[in-house]
Amino acid sequence: MTERLTAGLPGEFAAILAGLDEDIRGGSEDRVTTTVFDVTGRPARSFREFLS
Questions:
Q1: How does DSSP classify residue 8?
Q2: Which range of residues forms the domain containing residue 15?
Q3: DSSP labels, 4-42
């Protein structure tokens, strides 16, 4: 699948994108903020909780 996503991209750029994806998979973007509470005055909830 990766080959299809990077088809036509220069190799170095494709490698950078793949590295970013690996970092994200490793948790580099797992962040919790207070934004929902700051805006709504209520604690955040999961998507599953929202649906129910």
A1: T
A2: 2-51
A3: HHHTTS-HHHHHHHHHHHHHHHTTTT----SHHHHHHSS
Closest CA to 5 of 36, 46, 34, 14: 14
Q: Which amino acid, one-letter code, is at 1? A: M
* d(C-alpha 12, C-alpha 50), whole Å: 41
Digit-coded pLDDT (tens) for 1-52: 555 666 788 989 988 998 999 999 999 988 889 999 999 999 999 899 989 9
Query: Alpha-carbon distance 16 to 46, whole Å?
Result: 31
Number of domains in the chain: 1
Model pTM above 0.70: no
